[in-house]
Amino acid sequence: MTKAEELLHNDPASKLLGIELHEIDEGYCAVIMRVTEKMTNGYDVCHGGFVFTLADTASAFASAMEGEVVLTASNQIEYLAPAKLYDLLRAEAKVSIISGKNLYCDVKVCDQNDRLIAVTRSKLISKRS
Predict the structure, then answer these.
(1) CATH number belonging to the domain at 3-126, selected among 3.40.50.300, 3.40.50.1010, 3.10.129.10, 3.30.470.20
(2) How far apart are the C-alpha atoms of 8 and 103, rounded to whole Å?
(3) Could you list the pLDDT tens digit for every one of the 129 residues in the chain?
(4) Of the N and C termini of the chain, which has fewer Cβ atoms inside 10 Å?
(5) 53: part of which helix (H) or strand (E)?
(6) 71/84 Cα distance (integer angstroms)
(7) In terms of Cα–Cα distance, which of 64, 123, 115 is closest to 90?
(8) Taking the CA of residue 65 as centre, how many other CA atoms within 13 Å lie in the half-sphere pointing to its CB?
């Protein structure tokens, strides 16, 4: 079991949202999530917090592949298009910079038609002593 698989297995929030591992590699992770009725607002648009959670999860799993326990210190998101009810979202995260205990991870979230929904940049901090 990879570190990302282990994290997902022990992550009740990801399980609740139906987040699944799609692809993993060293410093890279792709996760998927289907937008359900309980994730939408009054416009049948996915609430941004769920898109953010998917991106944050991908970032954490990609960073965990580096072999360290890491926690998100900050995260910036740009919403580019709305995700809609029943969309299948895919978040692809790649660790782009490692500097000391700091890791920076870039994530793009797309729908099933490869339409870009959001991009994020996360700063994660290694908890190694």
Answers:
(1) 3.10.129.10
(2) 20
(3) 677 777 778 888 999 999 999 998 888 999 999 999 999 999 989 999 999 999 999 999 898 865 567 889 999 999 999 999 999 999 999 999 999 889 999 999 999 999 999 999 999 998 764
(4) C
(5) helix 48-64
(6) 29
(7) 115
(8) 21
Q: How are beta strands 28-34 and 20-25 bridged, if at all?
A: antiparallel
CB 91 within 8 A of CB 57: yes
**Contact, 90 vs 31, CB < 8 A?**
yes
Secondary structure class of 61 (helix, strand, coil): helix
Q: 17 exposed, middle or buried (CB, 10 Å; 0-12, 13-18, 19+)?
A: buried
Angle at the Cα of 47 from the Cα atoms of 11 and 37, rounded to 5 degrees: 80
Cα 100 to the chain's mean position, in Å?
23
- The identity of residue 128, as a single letter, is R
pTM: 0.92
DSSP annotation of 13 reads: H
